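User: Design a sequence. Structure:
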């Protein structure tokens, strides 16, 4: 099962809205087939493993990181493929919460006479599928906030200079982080000021390009911006207000930009909950938020940040620099979002810390 989960990781950021799954076929103590969900979400892991195993799959045990599907979509059910191949036993790490599956896959396998076991490496699978489970159960993706700051939490000098606070090793690692997410999101202020491409630009990962997302209530992103100009080659989603100017919306659509709406909160700003729900409706299971400080503040205020990956450079800017997270109106410590540090290591001269939401 550990191998199945490792194989599943190969699909991170490439399979949404389908989950990345790993499958290992074992017969007489020997691995006879292995597979993982292919880019775009199909073929599924079980199909790939069965294809590689051929006749050796008959009588084998299938170790699958997530419950096999049992419904007809663009491909036949994986349960039927396992049954037809003569697999004798199926070991599953976690049940699939998708209403189209939700135990039906396990039931179908049992009805066909397979020995079915569940819960092997279940906690590891639950952590791995955190984004997929959240999207299926709550309609929103797992939100990771990426910060690249000085030791005192600044992302730019008072004049706006920000390139480069962190070193090349940290920046390469940030690109690898993008490659494991379905989408990378920024606010329009960051998009206009920094002109980011939000793409993965390191050798070997050119095919792992996340959906580029810009939150832009006033539609101020220039039509000449890379995020617009290359939208047909590299999909871009622009989330805006329902009352955004129709002519401006049409100009983005004509350029190949996908648009989605997010409702307005009581204070007149775009609802942060509506923003992440728009991503969930799009099929995004995990999103990497790379700025700016206002968007980060809104997500923190709404307690929607599930994880923080913090790159810290060994330098100081001071209190007149731009903070990584804008003020969001808290007055009492007991109402602050709280996190637990789960990892800490070096990336060149910089430190990378990972925090998870405290439960």
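Assistant: Done.
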């Amino acid at each position: 099962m550990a191998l199945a989960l490792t194989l599943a990781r190969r699909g991170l950021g490439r399979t949404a809205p389908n989950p990345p799954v790993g499958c290992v076929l074992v017969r007489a103590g020997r691995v006879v087939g292995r597979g993982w969900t292919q880019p775009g979400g199909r073929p599924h892991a079980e199909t790939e493993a069965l294809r590689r195993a051929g006749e050796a799959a008959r009588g084998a045990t299938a170790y699958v990181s997530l419950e096999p599907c049992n419904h007809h979509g663009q491909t036949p059910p994986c349960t039927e493929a396992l049954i037809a191949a003569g697999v004798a036993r199926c070991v599953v790490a976690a049940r699939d919460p998708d209403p189209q599956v939700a135990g039906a896959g396990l039931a179908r396998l049992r009805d066909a006479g397979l020995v079915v076991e569940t819960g092997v490496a279940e906690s590891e699978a639950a952590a791995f599928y955190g984004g997929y489970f959240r999207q299926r159960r709550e309609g929103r993706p797992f939100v990771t906030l990426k910060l690249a700051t000085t030791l005192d939490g600044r992302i730019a000098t008072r004049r706006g200079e920000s390139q480069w606070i962190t070193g090349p090793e940290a920046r390469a690692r940030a690109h690898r982080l993008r490659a494991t997410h379905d989408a990378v999101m920024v606010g329009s202020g960051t998009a206009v000021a920094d002109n980011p491409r939000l793409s993965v630009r390191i050798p070997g990962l050119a095919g792992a390009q996340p959906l580029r997302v810009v939150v832009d209530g006033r539609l101020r992103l220039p039509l000449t911006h890379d995020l617009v100009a290359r939208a047909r080659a590299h999909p871009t989603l622009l989330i805006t207000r329902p009352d955004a100017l129709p002519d401006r919306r049409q100009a983005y659509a004509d350029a190949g930009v996908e648009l989605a709406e997010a409702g307005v909160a009581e204070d007149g700003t775009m609802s942060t909950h509506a923003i992440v729900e728009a991503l969930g409706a799009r099929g995004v299971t995990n999103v990497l938020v790379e700025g700016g400080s206002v968007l980060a503040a809104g997500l923190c205020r709404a307690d929607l940040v599930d994880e923080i990956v913090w790159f810290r450079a060994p330098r100081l800017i001071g209190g007149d620099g731009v903070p990584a997270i804008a003020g969001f109106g808290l007055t009492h410590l007991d109402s602050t979002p709280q996190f637990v540090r789960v990892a800490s290591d070096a990336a060149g001269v910089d430190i990378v810390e990972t925090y998870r939401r405290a439960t």
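The chain has a mean pLDDT of 93. The first helix runs from residue 2 to 8.
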